[in-house]
Amino acid sequence: MSADRGTAGALHAGGVLRLRGTGWLLLTICSAVGVAAFVWPFFTDATGGDPNVAHAADAPWIFVLLLPLLLAIILREVADGGLDAKAIALLGVLAACGAALRIPSVGATGFEPIFFLLLPAGRVFGRAFGFVLGAITLFASALITGGVGPWLPFQMFAAGWVGFFAGCLPPATGRREVLLVAAYGVVAGLAYGFVMNLWFWPFAVDQGSAISFVPGAGLGENLRHYWAFYLATSLGWDIPRAITNAVLMVVLGGPVLAALRRVARRGAFGVPVSFAEPAGDRAR
Asked: Which domains are seen in the chain, by residue range?
């Protein structure tokens, strides 16, 4: 029992993917690339049109930067001993399960259960693990569902941030923890849509309306236009996603959190390997 408590404490302190200095630097660079990818149109003379065409040049480069950074984070931790074969296998299994959850999604209504597994996994296994899991899950799900396009790297960043902040939630136990993660699921469901709209909004709405991007205008004015756009077009999609996250967590979150913690204990991800001589050998 004491070993179990030690493992749980180690996981709570840093998670399975316990990044050190270089690892955190790589994760920071990765997130900075994501922020730049979302906001660069605000500093250009973006015009209305097809966002797929507008991002035809930059989306492949964003993707080319994102995948090597994710791989570098993982390889760095493998080299430093912060990530072992068991943790990599766990990452793959959870990403595959999360990708499968996207298959029954009927996106137009906002029902997206893909985030359900990401929330408790980020909570149990930590911030860095949650970020990598979110990005890889969206990548795998896009391959399964044929959802590959210029929007994919933006989805990977946004889902990565959802998993990251799930690992930042304050300590809680029992039913309180389930309700905490469920409440975060509501926030994450709305925030994901709010952030994702930024990849196409400057290009998709014809200029001159009260909800369009205005090139050269101040940040305050464009934020007001974007807020109006979000309320008019996206909120109706994001509310069902937020409700789905909360309902699934309230109904199934307790058993899933317990199962993930049981995997963490049995996997002993936070316990260093040591070799001790059997007592009988010492006596001889």
From this structure: 17-270 (1.10.1760.20)
